[in-house]
Amino acid sequence: MPPKGCMAVRVGQEGEELRQFVVPVAYLDHPLFAELLDMAAQEYGFNQKGPIAIPCGVDHFRHVSDVIHSDQGAAAGHRLRHFAACFWSSMRENKIYFWGD
């Protein structure tokens, strides 16, 4: 289970193994993440169970995450600590990937 203030998403294109990422819920406010969610809604609909599946390549998702991270870091430095905490929890469990892999 993701830490408070974070959520899990599964990322991968058709034919790829889905990889799980943990991201801050603050990503939901970013237009780039909204585009990924629109892709997911078009591909899978709104009734997904468990983590949201996003139908894009892992490299693309990592790039989008980097951009969002930079945008949010520039706007509010205090969120960086929260962002890092989300990924630290993932690393400890050693089950979830993030863009630094």
TrEMBL record:
<dbReference type="Pfam" id="PF02519">
    <property type="entry name" value="Auxin_inducible"/>
</dbReference>
<dbReference type="InterPro" id="IPR003676">
    <property type="entry name" value="SAUR_fam"/>
</dbReference>
<comment type="similarity">
    <text>Belongs to the ARG7 family.</text>
</comment>
<dbReference type="GO" id="GO:0009733">
    <property type="term" value="P:response to auxin"/>
</dbReference>
<protein>
    <recommendedName>
        <fullName>SAUR family protein</fullName>
    </recommendedName>
</protein>
